[in-house]
Amino acid sequence: MESMGSIVVSGYYGFDNAGDEAVLYSIIKTLKEEVGEHVKITVLSNKPHETASTYHVEAVNRWKYKEIIAAIKNADVLISGGGSLLQDVTGWKSIVYYLSIVMIAKFFRKKVIFYAQGIGPVNMKFNRLLIGWIANKVDYISVRDQQSKEELIKMGVKREIEVVADPVLKLNPKERQKDTKKRLGVYLRPWKVEEHFFDKIKGILNWFDQKGWEIIFIPMHDPEDVELSQKICASLPGSVVYDGEHDPQSILDFTATLDYVLGMRLHSLIMAAAAGVPYMGISYDPKVKSFVEAMEAGKVIDIYELDQDKAIHYLESTLNHLDEMKETIKTRRNQLLEQRNMAVEVIKNSIL
What we know:
Layout: E1 6-10, H1 18-34, E2 40-45, H2 48-55, E3 58-61, H3 65-73, E4 77-86, H4 93-107, E5 111-119, H5 125-135, E6 140-143, H6 146-154, E7 161-163, E8 183-187, H7 195-210, E9 214-217, H8 224-234, E10 240-241, H9 248-255, E11 260-263, H10 266-275, E12 279-283, H11 286-295, E13 299-302, H12 308-318, H13 322-337, H14 342-351
Parallel strand pairs: 1-2, 1-4, 2-3, 4-5, 5-6, 6-7, 8-9, 8-11, 9-10, 11-12, 12-13
Protein backbone atom coordinates (compact mmCIF):
# COMPACT_ATOMS: atom_id res chain seq x y z
CA MET A 1 0.00 0.00 0.00
CA GLU A 2 1.26 3.50 -0.80
CA SER A 3 2.45 5.88 1.91
CA MET A 4 -0.25 8.22 3.26
CA GLY A 5 1.91 11.30 3.41
CA SER A 6 5.24 12.02 5.07
CA ILE A 7 6.10 13.47 8.49
CA VAL A 8 9.47 14.47 9.98
CA VAL A 9 9.80 14.44 13.78
CA SER A 10 12.38 16.64 15.53
CA GLY A 11 13.21 16.31 19.22
CA TYR A 12 15.76 15.05 21.74
CA TYR A 13 15.78 11.54 20.35
CA GLY A 14 18.49 8.90 20.25
CA PHE A 15 20.23 9.98 23.48
CA ASP A 16 19.27 7.02 25.72
CA ASN A 17 16.84 9.16 27.69
CA ALA A 18 13.84 6.98 28.55
CA GLY A 19 11.54 9.97 29.05
CA ASP A 20 12.18 11.49 25.65
CA GLU A 21 12.07 8.06 24.01
CA ALA A 22 8.66 7.53 25.62
CA VAL A 23 7.49 10.82 24.09
CA LEU A 24 8.67 9.65 20.66
CA TYR A 25 7.10 6.22 21.12
CA SER A 26 3.76 7.79 22.00
CA ILE A 27 3.86 10.25 19.07
CA ILE A 28 4.63 7.47 16.58
CA LYS A 29 1.93 5.25 18.10
CA THR A 30 -0.63 8.08 17.84
CA LEU A 31 0.31 8.92 14.25
CA LYS A 32 0.02 5.30 13.12
CA GLU A 33 -3.29 4.80 14.93
CA GLU A 34 -4.97 8.07 14.00
CA VAL A 35 -3.35 9.19 10.73
CA GLY A 36 -2.72 5.76 9.25
CA GLU A 37 -0.44 2.74 9.59
CA HIS A 38 1.25 3.56 6.28
CA VAL A 39 2.15 7.18 7.01
CA LYS A 40 5.88 7.72 6.43
CA ILE A 41 7.62 8.91 9.61
CA THR A 42 11.24 10.11 9.62
CA VAL A 43 12.88 10.90 12.97
CA LEU A 44 15.88 13.18 13.41
CA SER A 45 17.96 11.11 15.80
CA ASN A 46 21.36 11.01 17.47
CA LYS A 47 21.36 7.24 16.79
CA PRO A 48 19.36 6.92 13.55
CA HIS A 49 19.93 3.19 12.99
CA GLU A 50 18.83 2.35 16.54
CA THR A 51 15.78 4.64 16.31
CA ALA A 52 14.72 3.17 12.96
CA SER A 53 15.06 -0.39 14.25
CA THR A 54 13.30 0.25 17.58
CA TYR A 55 10.25 2.11 16.27
CA HIS A 56 9.98 0.75 12.70
CA VAL A 57 10.31 4.18 11.14
CA GLU A 58 12.89 5.93 9.01
CA ALA A 59 15.55 8.04 10.71
CA VAL A 60 18.36 10.40 9.74
CA ASN A 61 21.30 11.81 11.64
CA ARG A 62 20.14 14.91 13.54
CA TRP A 63 23.61 16.50 13.11
CA LYS A 64 23.84 16.12 9.32
CA TYR A 65 21.99 19.06 7.81
CA LYS A 66 22.24 17.63 4.29
CA GLU A 67 20.20 14.60 5.42
CA ILE A 68 17.80 16.79 7.41
CA ILE A 69 17.15 19.11 4.46
CA ALA A 70 16.49 16.14 2.15
CA ALA A 71 14.05 14.59 4.63
CA ILE A 72 12.13 17.84 5.21
CA LYS A 73 12.07 18.69 1.50
CA ASN A 74 10.30 15.38 0.79
CA ALA A 75 7.90 15.66 3.75
CA ASP A 76 4.48 17.26 4.19
CA VAL A 77 4.76 18.16 7.89
CA LEU A 78 7.43 18.83 10.51
CA ILE A 79 6.59 17.94 14.11
CA SER A 80 8.80 19.79 16.58
CA GLY A 81 8.47 18.09 19.95
CA GLY A 82 7.52 16.97 22.39
CA GLY A 83 9.75 17.60 25.36
CA SER A 84 11.60 20.64 26.66
CA LEU A 85 13.32 21.65 23.46
CA LEU A 86 13.16 25.43 23.77
CA GLN A 87 15.14 26.19 26.94
CA ASP A 88 18.57 27.68 27.56
CA VAL A 89 19.36 26.22 30.99
CA THR A 90 21.64 23.67 29.28
CA GLY A 91 23.05 26.31 26.91
CA TRP A 92 21.92 28.51 24.01
CA LYS A 93 22.72 25.97 21.29
CA SER A 94 19.58 23.90 21.95
CA ILE A 95 17.24 26.74 21.02
CA VAL A 96 19.22 27.66 17.90
CA TYR A 97 19.31 24.03 16.76
CA TYR A 98 15.59 23.30 17.09
CA LEU A 99 14.53 26.63 15.62
CA SER A 100 16.88 26.12 12.68
CA ILE A 101 15.01 22.90 11.86
CA VAL A 102 11.73 24.84 11.96
CA MET A 103 13.13 27.50 9.62
CA ILE A 104 14.28 24.85 7.12
CA ALA A 105 10.73 23.50 7.05
CA LYS A 106 9.24 26.97 6.58
CA PHE A 107 11.76 27.70 3.80
CA PHE A 108 10.32 24.71 1.91
CA ARG A 109 6.78 25.85 2.79
CA LYS A 110 6.00 22.83 4.92
CA LYS A 111 3.46 22.75 7.73
CA VAL A 112 5.11 23.01 11.15
CA ILE A 113 3.56 21.82 14.39
CA PHE A 114 4.82 22.43 17.92
CA TYR A 115 3.67 19.17 19.51
CA ALA A 116 3.07 19.19 23.30
CA GLN A 117 6.23 21.17 23.95
CA GLY A 118 7.44 22.33 27.32
CA ILE A 119 8.76 25.89 27.02
CA GLY A 120 11.55 27.25 29.19
CA PRO A 121 13.23 28.28 31.25
CA VAL A 122 14.50 30.79 28.68
CA ASN A 123 16.67 33.43 30.32
CA MET A 124 18.54 35.15 27.47
CA LYS A 125 16.66 38.08 25.95
CA PHE A 126 17.80 37.27 22.41
CA ASN A 127 16.54 33.69 22.74
CA ARG A 128 13.14 34.92 23.91
CA LEU A 129 12.89 37.27 20.91
CA LEU A 130 13.98 34.50 18.54
CA ILE A 131 11.43 32.01 19.87
CA GLY A 132 8.64 34.59 19.69
CA TRP A 133 9.51 35.55 16.11
CA ILE A 134 9.74 31.99 14.78
CA ALA A 135 6.81 30.58 16.79
CA ASN A 136 4.56 33.13 15.09
CA LYS A 137 5.39 31.42 11.78
CA VAL A 138 4.36 27.96 13.04
CA ASP A 139 1.06 26.50 11.79
CA TYR A 140 -0.13 24.96 15.06
CA ILE A 141 1.16 25.21 18.63
CA SER A 142 0.39 22.92 21.53
CA VAL A 143 2.20 22.94 24.88
CA ARG A 144 2.04 20.50 27.75
CA ASP A 145 1.31 22.96 30.58
CA GLN A 146 -0.22 26.36 31.28
CA GLN A 147 3.13 27.84 32.28
CA SER A 148 4.55 27.08 28.81
CA LYS A 149 1.59 28.84 27.19
CA GLU A 150 2.10 31.89 29.38
CA GLU A 151 5.80 31.94 28.53
CA LEU A 152 5.11 31.96 24.79
CA ILE A 153 2.60 34.78 25.19
CA LYS A 154 5.20 36.79 27.13
CA MET A 155 7.61 36.16 24.23
CA GLY A 156 5.15 37.81 21.86
CA VAL A 157 3.48 34.78 20.31
CA LYS A 158 0.12 35.84 18.85
CA ARG A 159 -0.99 32.49 17.45
CA GLU A 160 -3.49 30.30 19.25
CA ILE A 161 -1.78 28.06 21.79
CA GLU A 162 -3.44 24.89 23.09
CA VAL A 163 -2.55 23.23 26.37
CA VAL A 164 -2.57 19.44 25.99
CA ALA A 165 -1.50 16.43 28.00
CA ASP A 166 2.06 15.18 27.63
CA PRO A 167 2.07 12.37 25.03
CA VAL A 168 3.41 9.86 27.57
CA LEU A 169 0.27 10.23 29.71
CA LYS A 170 -1.64 8.55 26.88
CA LEU A 171 0.38 5.32 27.06
CA ASN A 172 -1.16 2.27 28.74
CA PRO A 173 0.85 -0.30 30.72
CA LYS A 174 0.32 -4.00 30.27
CA GLU A 175 -1.49 -5.72 33.12
CA ARG A 176 0.97 -7.37 35.48
CA GLN A 177 0.43 -8.93 38.87
CA LYS A 178 1.85 -6.91 41.76
CA ASP A 179 4.08 -8.40 44.43
CA THR A 180 2.60 -8.79 47.91
CA LYS A 181 5.50 -6.76 49.31
CA LYS A 182 5.15 -2.99 48.88
CA ARG A 183 7.52 -1.61 46.24
CA LEU A 184 8.99 1.88 45.94
CA GLY A 185 10.38 3.06 42.60
CA VAL A 186 13.12 5.70 42.83
CA TYR A 187 13.92 7.77 39.73
CA LEU A 188 16.86 10.09 40.45
CA ARG A 189 19.03 12.28 38.27
CA PRO A 190 22.25 14.19 38.96
CA TRP A 191 21.77 17.88 39.68
CA LYS A 192 23.83 20.76 41.01
CA VAL A 193 22.91 20.40 44.65
CA GLU A 194 24.98 19.98 47.78
CA GLU A 195 25.84 16.42 48.72
CA HIS A 196 23.58 16.52 51.79
CA PHE A 197 20.55 16.63 49.44
CA PHE A 198 21.16 12.99 48.53
CA ASP A 199 21.76 12.24 52.22
CA LYS A 200 18.19 13.44 52.82
CA ILE A 201 16.97 11.19 49.99
CA LYS A 202 18.80 8.28 51.64
CA GLY A 203 17.13 9.15 54.94
CA ILE A 204 13.70 8.96 53.29
CA LEU A 205 14.60 5.67 51.63
CA ASN A 206 15.82 4.26 54.95
CA TRP A 207 12.40 5.10 56.39
CA PHE A 208 10.73 3.10 53.59
CA ASP A 209 13.16 0.22 54.21
CA GLN A 210 12.29 0.17 57.91
CA LYS A 211 8.62 -0.04 56.93
CA GLY A 212 9.39 -3.21 54.99
CA TRP A 213 9.22 -1.75 51.49
CA GLU A 214 11.30 -3.09 48.62
CA ILE A 215 13.33 -0.23 47.06
CA ILE A 216 14.14 -0.28 43.34
CA PHE A 217 16.13 2.41 41.53
CA ILE A 218 15.06 2.97 37.92
CA PRO A 219 17.62 4.97 35.88
CA MET A 220 16.04 6.83 32.97
CA HIS A 221 19.14 8.32 31.35
CA ASP A 222 22.23 6.25 30.64
CA PRO A 223 24.93 6.64 31.92
CA GLU A 224 24.39 9.52 34.38
CA ASP A 225 21.31 8.17 36.17
CA VAL A 226 22.82 4.68 36.28
CA GLU A 227 25.96 5.87 38.07
CA LEU A 228 23.97 7.87 40.65
CA SER A 229 21.51 5.03 41.26
CA GLN A 230 24.29 2.49 41.75
CA LYS A 231 26.11 4.81 44.15
CA ILE A 232 23.09 5.36 46.41
CA CYS A 233 21.93 1.76 46.08
CA ALA A 234 25.30 0.57 47.39
CA SER A 235 24.66 2.46 50.65
CA LEU A 236 21.19 0.94 51.12
CA PRO A 237 21.42 -2.81 51.78
CA GLY A 238 18.51 -4.66 50.22
CA SER A 239 17.81 -2.08 47.52
CA VAL A 240 18.39 -2.93 43.86
CA VAL A 241 18.85 -1.16 40.52
CA TYR A 242 16.40 -2.07 37.75
CA ASP A 243 18.18 -4.15 35.13
CA GLY A 244 15.31 -4.91 32.75
CA GLU A 245 14.71 -3.63 29.23
CA HIS A 246 14.92 0.15 28.84
CA ASP A 247 12.49 0.70 26.00
CA PRO A 248 9.59 3.00 26.97
CA GLN A 249 6.91 0.31 27.14
CA SER A 250 9.03 -1.93 29.37
CA ILE A 251 9.75 0.88 31.85
CA LEU A 252 6.08 1.87 31.87
CA ASP A 253 5.06 -1.75 32.46
CA PHE A 254 7.52 -2.02 35.32
CA THR A 255 6.33 1.26 36.82
CA ALA A 256 2.82 -0.20 36.91
CA THR A 257 4.05 -2.92 39.32
CA LEU A 258 5.08 -0.32 41.91
CA ASP A 259 3.06 0.97 44.84
CA TYR A 260 4.69 4.39 45.08
CA VAL A 261 7.14 6.50 43.08
CA LEU A 262 9.73 9.01 44.29
CA GLY A 263 10.83 10.81 41.16
CA MET A 264 13.04 13.66 40.00
CA ARG A 265 12.65 12.88 36.31
CA LEU A 266 9.49 14.45 34.88
CA HIS A 267 8.58 11.39 32.86
CA SER A 268 8.95 9.09 35.85
CA LEU A 269 6.00 10.99 37.33
CA ILE A 270 4.08 11.01 34.04
CA MET A 271 4.60 7.25 33.67
CA ALA A 272 3.44 6.80 37.27
CA ALA A 273 0.30 8.81 36.48
CA ALA A 274 -0.28 6.82 33.29
CA ALA A 275 -0.05 3.62 35.35
CA GLY A 276 -2.18 4.97 38.22
CA VAL A 277 0.68 4.82 40.74
CA PRO A 278 0.84 7.50 43.51
CA TYR A 279 3.98 9.65 43.51
CA MET A 280 6.07 12.34 45.13
CA GLY A 281 7.99 14.61 42.77
CA ILE A 282 11.27 16.39 43.55
CA SER A 283 11.22 19.53 41.41
CA TYR A 284 14.57 20.59 39.96
CA ASP A 285 12.83 22.35 37.06
CA PRO A 286 9.49 24.22 36.81
CA LYS A 287 8.16 21.51 34.47
CA VAL A 288 8.05 18.99 37.34
CA LYS A 289 5.99 21.32 39.55
CA SER A 290 3.74 22.24 36.60
CA PHE A 291 2.90 18.61 35.89
CA VAL A 292 2.05 17.70 39.50
CA GLU A 293 -0.11 20.82 39.80
CA ALA A 294 -1.90 20.02 36.51
CA MET A 295 -2.62 16.51 37.79
CA GLU A 296 -4.09 17.93 41.00
CA ALA A 297 -2.77 14.81 42.72
CA GLY A 298 0.43 13.73 44.43
CA LYS A 299 3.03 15.88 46.13
CA VAL A 300 5.85 18.04 44.76
CA ILE A 301 8.79 19.37 46.78
CA ASP A 302 11.30 21.94 45.53
CA ILE A 303 14.76 20.37 45.31
CA TYR A 304 16.29 23.22 47.32
CA GLU A 305 13.64 23.03 50.04
CA LEU A 306 13.58 19.29 50.76
CA ASP A 307 13.05 18.70 54.45
CA GLN A 308 13.52 15.04 55.33
CA ASP A 309 11.31 15.11 58.43
CA LYS A 310 8.47 16.95 56.69
CA ALA A 311 8.62 14.58 53.72
CA ILE A 312 8.41 11.55 56.00
CA HIS A 313 5.55 13.14 57.95
CA TYR A 314 3.66 13.58 54.66
CA LEU A 315 4.39 9.99 53.63
CA GLU A 316 3.22 8.60 56.99
CA SER A 317 -0.21 10.14 56.45
CA THR A 318 -0.34 9.39 52.71
CA LEU A 319 0.66 5.75 52.47
CA ASN A 320 -2.43 4.69 54.39
CA HIS A 321 -4.60 6.01 51.57
CA LEU A 322 -2.87 4.62 48.46
CA ASP A 323 -6.05 3.16 46.95
CA GLU A 324 -7.82 6.52 47.17
CA MET A 325 -4.82 8.24 45.58
CA LYS A 326 -4.78 5.73 42.73
CA GLU A 327 -8.40 6.45 41.92
CA THR A 328 -7.81 10.22 42.05
CA ILE A 329 -4.87 9.88 39.64
CA LYS A 330 -6.81 7.66 37.23
CA THR A 331 -9.77 10.05 37.22
CA ARG A 332 -7.61 13.11 36.60
CA ARG A 333 -5.63 11.33 33.88
CA ASN A 334 -8.85 10.50 32.04
CA GLN A 335 -9.99 14.12 32.32
CA LEU A 336 -6.74 15.40 30.80
CA LEU A 337 -6.92 12.87 27.97
CA GLU A 338 -10.46 13.89 27.04
CA GLN A 339 -9.06 16.88 25.13
CA ARG A 340 -9.03 16.25 21.41
CA ASN A 341 -5.55 16.17 19.90
CA MET A 342 -5.93 18.93 17.33
CA ALA A 343 -2.33 18.42 16.19
CA VAL A 344 -3.43 15.15 14.62
CA GLU A 345 -6.28 16.94 12.83
CA VAL A 346 -3.85 19.51 11.41
CA ILE A 347 -1.57 16.70 10.22
CA LYS A 348 -4.44 14.83 8.60
CA ASN A 349 -5.58 17.95 6.76
CA SER A 350 -2.03 18.55 5.55
CA ILE A 351 -1.31 15.14 4.08
CA LEU A 352 -4.57 13.41 3.20
